[in-house]
Amino acid sequence: MTTSRDDRPAGLRERKKARTRAAIQDHALRLFIEQGYAATTVEQIAEAAEVSPSTFFRYFPTKEETVLYDRLDPVLIESFLNQPPELSPLAAVRGALHAIFDSLDSEESELERARQRLVFSVPELRARLLDQVAGGLTMLNDAVAKRVGREPDDFDVRVWSGSLIGILVAAYLASIEDGSDDFIGYFDRALTRLEEGVPLQP
User: Fold this and answer.
1) Domains, the chain, ranges and CATH?
2) At CB < 8 A and 24+ separation, what contacts does 142-147 make?
């Protein structure tokens, strides 16, 4: 199938928009690390990213969104769907997590860790966490349904996806509270516990 001349610019525009959005978010996270979330203004972020405040608001409606926006989510979902078909859903999740997080360079890893710490530590961001989790759950639920050949509204698919989201949030919180940067190690431990049925002895 050939790509028409009209299709190519649209693709280029989307890639340019994605790069601009990523650059604004990266500059925002660097400023939050350097001077704190509350002390950083939209104007400072725009200046650092070399865009106007109006351009900032075209990509992020609020300062909060520069932290809440998780650009790894769609990449993780794509990697999950592309894992070998013989893998179980949990093994595919583990493979996707390692494929994406292991591919991040040191600065990307630092910025992602900073983003997660902010989500869980800044009160106004933490208050928005439920919305973020709900969006992630919908994406995961659709991907899981596609991978196992069921409908997204299948009860077992919903329960499985909800369980996975729950343990990943718990793993994030545990790693942050423990002061660890090893998110992927905590994910692995959480996935192993889920595989074991999460046994809990008194």
Assistant:
1) 1-62 (1.10.10.60), 70-195 (1.10.357.10)
2) 143/77, 143/80, 143/81, 144/89, 146/81, 147/80, 147/81, 147/89, 147/92
